[in-house]
Each structure stands twice: as C-alpha cells, then as structure tokens.
Amino acid sequence: MLPSVTLVTRSLPGSSDFPVTAAMIAGTRHRVVVDTLIQPADMAPFAGATLVVYTHSDWDHCWGTAAFPGVPVIGHRVARERLTAPEAAEFLAQMRAKNPAAFAESQIIPPGLTFPHRLTIDAGGLTIDLHHLPGHTADSVVVHVPELGLLLAGDAVERPIPTLSEPGHIRQWAEELRRWSRAGVTHVVPGHGRPGGPELLAANAAYIDRLVEAAESGLAKGQSADEIAAELPLGALLPPGVVEQLPDYYREQHRLNIAQVVAELQAGR
C-alpha cells in the first residue's frame, strides 16, 4: 500500500475466512482513521489518530472507536441516526452476550460531525473527500484521496461481489461505481476482500447491472425471487473455480442480493 496509508485487516469473530479492513491516512495536519473495526484493540496500529471517519454504521466498521477518546468522529447523518437509535445498543448487547471475549470492550460512538452529501478534510498535503454513495446501506460513504489515486470504498465495494443490504439505491449505486472507475482512481480498498484497482469498481457495477437485468426479465415472466436466483447462479457471473473458494457467506448473499433487487423493482412499480 501507499507510504502514507496503513491498512489493518482482521477476521470477523467466528469466521476466519471473512476479513474486514480499516485504514489510516497520515497527512502533516491530521492522521485520519477510516473505520474502527470491532473493538478498541483492533486499533492499536493506529495510535496518534486525530480524526475518525465512518464509511457506514455496520458493527464491524465502527465498534472500536473507544480506542480514540476525545478524537472527533465524522460520518453521514444517517449513520448518526442509526447509531443513536435504541436498536444499535440492543444489538451490541446481543452480540456481547453471545461472545463476551470478542465484544466486551466494543462501544457505540456516534459521529459528532455529520454531512449529507460531501465533506472535504485538509489532512495536510493530502485531501480527504468524503462522498455519500448509498447502496450497500443508506449511510454508505466512500473516501477519496485524489493525490494518491486512492478510494477507500467501505462496503460500497467488495471482492468478489457487493452486499445489497437495503433496497432503494441500486441503480444509483452501480452508476456511481462506474463513474468512480473512470475518475482516475488507481488504488481501491474494499471493506471486505483484497485491494485492487478501478477494475474492481467496474466489476461490482457490472454485477449489480446483471442482477437488475435478470430481475426485470424474471418479473416480466411472473417469476419469484427464488426462481430468478435459480436461473442466475453465482458461478455464472464469476470466473471458473472462484465460487468454490469463496466463504459460504457470498453464495448465500448472492441469493439475498437478488431478493433485494426484486424488492426494489417491485416497490417502484
């Protein structure tokens, strides 16, 4: 990775083959942590951070923030709404009860500074542009460092396929990924999976487009989401041999992704 960027990757509890990644960007004015993973101990390599940014409010991206007491936290305004809702604390309590060792030190710290569309940070020699990119979730944000050709994509991008958690933004999501693939970005760091280049953005957009096409065709024929999924297995969309090497999560998520696309198209009718 680039000299001014440090990445930390850890596996999710109970899932050794499903990693999540956070980053720190070191400018001369600010050392900006992007996502804080699961618990404060995950953030040990990021000592000296002066700002924290959330790409979104999912638990595996923001429960380690207590490692940075007093450090300002920035996120989309919907992320703050979600992290201050009672359901967020209830979910942490449930996860802690199931696995005390993994979550005993985890805390929910909502962003104190929020924005609706875009926010620019002068980190000193590096510009950090936060762009709202809904799709994975309504509060999803990507972090662009133009001087480095770097895009920290959170879960707006994954390898090998994205996770469609919420219907409502699917076409916009694919279009934005295509736009970013043509924007001069040379380094793309997804929230899950190994880094790549602009081809990773284009591949995620193409996957979403293919699901939309299949869902539109299937609905026109009166098919259910399960019937559409049966006609479009994940293996048909990835290179030979890739599916067999994937965590079970992605095989199941592909089916759920199709259900989300179907739900969005039906809601738009």
Automatic annotation (TrEMBL):
It comes from the Bacteria. This is Glyoxylase-like metal-dependent hydrolase (Beta-lactamase superfamily II). SMART domains: Lactamase_B. The lineage of its organism: Bacteria, Bacillati, Bacillota, Clostridia, Eubacteriales. InterPro entries: Metallo-B-lactamas, NDM-1-like, RibonucZ/Hydroxyglut_hydro. It comes from Symbiobacterium terraclitae. Residues 19-192 form the Metallo-beta-lactamase domain. It holds the Pfam family Lactamase_B.
